[in-house]
Amino acid sequence: MKTTERLLSATADIWAAYNAHPFVMGIQDGTLARDKFKYYILQDYLYLEEYAKVFAIGIAKAKSLDTMRLFSRQVNFLTEGEMNIHRGYMGAFTVSQEELSATPRALDNLSYTSYMLRVAYEEGEAEILAAILSCAYSYEVIAKTILKNNPRAAEHPFYGNWVKGYAGSDFCDGNVVLLDTLNFLTCNYTEDQLQHLTDIFVACSRYELAFWEMAWNMSK
Ligand SMILES: Cc1ncc(C[n+]2csc(CCO)c2C)c(N)n1
């Protein structure tokens, strides 16, 4: 079994809960309250700033030029590309730089990024990839499942851009490389090493679910 198959089978119930979550279902049918989505976009922007640093540490930990490139492409993509979805919505909500700077990180947000940064500082390149995989890949699965359940979600005047953005090839192409690299780097891992990788992936998958819950409740 490939490492990524093992990781995904260990978290199948958590991943199934993403698309069943009321926040994600609200994006799917277009009924999500705008104030909840605005809260989410602001928290997610703050999240992505920290998440980019996880890749930046990955660059320093990479043992080959290929892995170094994978990490550095993501840093570039995050600082130039991913945040465009967020910038678009922040424009729609007319969020000023002052409002963004004055937004405190909610505790689940802070915990999630702190955990990933700890893995990045303490562990190796494959463990860093396992930590970011839930984030990078779950949005592809979520957006594609939304489109399967409701193909018209892509045309929604407000939430359509979010769905199209995350189901689009800009994100999904990067995930193929991410999954392949993690499998390649861990093909000779021992059972203990694989179990440790699974623990990291389970923790991050739980954090992803907690992030949806945090956004739904607009937690402080
Ligand atoms: C909490 C949270 N989790 C995942 C993503 C999705 N995401 C963030 S960066 C990226 C590109 C690949 O690393 C993707 C798909 C998000 N925006 N917020």
TrEMBL record:
Coiled-coil zones: none
Classification via Pfam families: TENA_THI-4
Organism domain of life: Bacteria
SUPFAM superfamilies per UniProt: Heme oxygenase-like
Residue span, Thiaminase-2/PQQC domain: 12-217
Reactions the enzyme catalyzes: 4-amino-5-aminomethyl-2-methylpyrimidine + H2O = 4-amino-5-hydroxymethyl-2-methylpyrimidine + NH4(+); thiamine + H2O = 5-(2-hydroxyethyl)-4-methylthiazole + 4-amino-5-hydroxymethyl-2-methylpyrimidine + H(+)
Cellular component GO terms held in the UniProt record: cytosol
GO MF annotation terms: thiaminase activity
Gene3D superfamilies, A to Z: Heme oxygenase-like (1.20.910.10)
Any one of the GO BP annotations: thiamine diphosphate biosynthetic process
Pathway recorded for this protein: Cofactor biosynthesis; thiamine diphosphate biosynthesis
Sorted UniProt keywords: Thiamine biosynthesis
EC number assigned by the record: 3.5.99.2
Listed InterPro entries: Haem_Oase-like_multi-hlx, Thiaminase-2/PQQC, Thiaminase_II, Thiamine_Salvage_TenA
Protein family according to the UniProt entry: Belongs to the TenA family.
Complex formation: Homotetramer.
Name of the featured protein: Aminopyrimidine aminohydrolase
Lineage: Bacteria, Bacillati, Bacillota, Clostridia, Eubacteriales
